[in-house]
Amino acid sequence: MARNPERRTLLADAGLRVLAAAGARGLTHRAVDAEAGVPTGTASNYFPSRAALLAGLAERIFDRIAPDPAVLAELGGREPSLALVTDYLRYIVERTTREPDLTRALFELRLEASRRPELRAALGGVLRRGYADDVAFHVAAGLPGGAFEIALLHYAVDGLLLDLLTTSIDAGFDADQVVSALVSRLVGGVTG
């Protein structure tokens, strides 16, 4: 297998663009090669199977949408409050909509994982670590609620992102307004 990390990253980023634009059915080694502008066969040198390609994309997507440690440090240094939870959630929505194709690619990966046990295992582990990190941040910041409230927020934000980045219900509500309401209704009444 090829070992150039920059080339692997280039191919994974191209694969994410293909996945977002063409869906899982359009994701082929040839399509990734064409998108990356590399000779045919290059992607298969780095990702020898479809499973390896999907796993590589799952690994790369979380590098791309990872939170900025400086922003987390700033948020984590603030006094515990619902405003802090709201700002944290706003940051998640901003970060995941900044490059909408990345989040669309993540939706595609999650759908594909429902059909591929090997991808389900890899992607599920990453998703669970992200959730655990969010719970840890919440607890370390001394915010009200805990794992259950963070799960509720994940479920709600996933739905908001799906609506913002795919075909919308067009309910006419601003995303910032929705985030504020989610926090106040899902966490606002929780003590401790």
From TrEMBL:
Residues 28-47 bind DNA. Keywords: DNA-binding. Pfam families: TetR_C_31 (PF17940), TetR_N (PF00440). PROSITE patterns: HTH_TETR_2. SUPFAM superfamilies: Homeodomain-like. Residues 5-65 form the HTH tetR-type domain. This is TetR family transcriptional regulator.
